[in-house]
Amino acid sequence: MDNFTFYSPTWFQFGKDAEALTGACVKKFGGKKALLHYGGGSVVRSGLLDRVKKSLDAEGISYVELGGAKPNPLSGKVYEGIELARKEKVDFVIGIGGGSAIDSSKAIAFGALYDGDFWDFYDGTQGQVQESLPIGVVLTLAATGSEASTDAVITNENGMYKRCADGDVLRPKFAIMNPELTCTLPPYQTASGAFDMLSHCMERYFSHTPEVEFTDRLLEACMLTILKEGKRAMLEPDNYDARANLMWCGTISHNNVTGVGRAQDWGTHHMENELSTHYGCSHGAGLAILTPSWMKYAMKTQGTERFVMFATRIFGCQMDYEHPEATALEGIERLQVFIKDVLKLPTTISEIGGKMEDVPELARSMFHGAPNHSNLVKLTPEIAEEIYRAAME
Ligand code: NZQ
Ligand code: ZN
Questions:
Q1: Of 141, 270, 291, which is best to mutate to test ligand 1, by the most ligand atoms within 8 angstroms of its C-beta?
Q2: Which residues surround ligand 2, an ion (CB under 5 A)?
Q3: How far from 214 is each of 95, 219, 258, CA to CA, in Å?
Q4: 373 pLDDT exceeds 80?
Q5: Closest-lying ligand 1 atom to the alpha carbon of residue 103
Q6: Which one of 37, 148, 223, 229 is most buried, counting C-beta atoms within 10 A?
Q7: At 12, is the secondary structure helix, strand, or coil?
């Protein structure tokens, strides 16, 4: 196991009606005036925004609002939020919604304190984010783990480059997690969220680092839970326990407790950024499309051992000792069945509107200003093109 540093100080308020404690959480962490940031209106329609405001009123915390964060959030909204946060002198930013509203909130929170263009933390001009207004989260979609992660993913409208900034200060101070709030999700978003968290486990699981038994087993527990509860949430959208297990699993899959002490890959995620940017699919759907093709390329070039483990431990495949690659491939096939029949997500780029002639542009855009992409498979533009082509039809 490699040496590591791990600092994850988020306060979790989990369960039914948890949003009623938003005001108390802001107060606990010293906030007096908050910017409430949300997406396209689901939190208005559900009445959640009003409940959050009521809890802030009850604690005497004032606030201003900014809606309109788009799925795969855009830089323009972040600039607008930074200006508002500065003008109103807020001392807290609260993201209400899924990963997009949360990431946009994070970028506003650190951008408001930075004496330059917030994009400097995305294009390599600056390193990790060191300073931010405190961030709180009211989560409505179990998926990205942004409610406890160090990341904020934003797409720059100038060129449509989707990139990630990170830093420990971007871990929210608190996360309000009421699983009931996720019962209103359309099946596509429930499924996309389940696959995103599965991918967060796989990006960590497929590693060359030896002797990481404990995190291997944590990752396997997460993956088995996602298969079981993801299916249950698809079949029974109002099942509280399925939603609750999935929600907590999404957090643990990406706050990095499962990833410490080991090299991680993230190549599929970097390749996915191009699909959601070019074709407007959900992040999870893009990952579902690319993952089987990435796995086939990786097992061919990096050896089958980890892929056999995945097949036998996660999908219960029978070990073929004479042909381990057959076992590994069976695991990938069963994953594809889960994607198609259980999650009902697309399995090819062409299904979301892509064409074979787009492939060079996808690879070019992916490497624009971001040369180092991955670990187990060291992606180059040529390898990325090969994987995109394999996932096309
Ligand atoms: O915008 P509203 O109206 O709120 O609707 C949203 C949106 O249309 C809707 N929705 C959310 N909660 C709902 C709901 N609809 C009904 N009921 C609810 N309870 O769902 C749609 C998708 O929301 P979005 O926030 O875009 O989804 P998700 O949570 O999957 O976030 C995806 C974004 O997070 C990034 C992705 O790249 C993508 O930009 N990621 C962030 C990470 C991080 N910060 O750690 C890591 C991930 O790997 C990922 O890259
Ligand atoms: Zn992800």
A1: 141
A2: 196
A3: 33, 9, 9
A4: no
A5: 44
A6: 37
A7: strand
Residue nearest to atom 20 of ligand 1 (CA): 189
Q: Which residue has the tokens 């308020």?
A: 13
Which pLDDT tens digit goes with each residue over 130-174?
999 999 999 999 999 999 999 999 999 999 999 999 999 999 999
Percent of the chain with pLDDT over 70: 100
CA angle 284, 286, 287 (to 5 degrees): 65
Q: Give the atom of ligand 1 at the shortest distance from the alpha carbon of 273.
A: 37
Q: Is the dihedral of CA 11, 25, 37, 32 positive or negative?
A: negative
**Predicted model pTM:** 0.98
> Above 90 in pLDDT, residue 371?
no
For residues 138 and 96, the answer to whether their CB atoms sit within 8 Å is yes
37 exposure class (CB count in 10 Å sphere: 0-12, 13-18, 19+): buried
What is the residue whose two structure tokens read 């097949």?
A: 311
Residues present in the chain in total: 393
Q: Which residues of 93-103 are buried (b: 16+ CB within 10 A; e: fewer)?
A: bbbbbbbbbbb
pLDDT one-digit tens code per residue, 62-74 = 999 999 999 999 9
Q: If you average pLDDT over every residue of the chain, what do you get?
A: 97
* 3-class state of residue 2 by DSSP: coil
pLDDT of 121: 97
Q: How far apart are CA 24 and CA 17, in angstroms?
A: 13
Task: Please state whether 136 falls in left (phi above 0), alpha (psi between -120 and 50) or beta.
Answer: beta
Cβ contact 281:354 at 8 Å: no
Q: Closest-lying ligand to the alpha carbon of 287?
A: 2
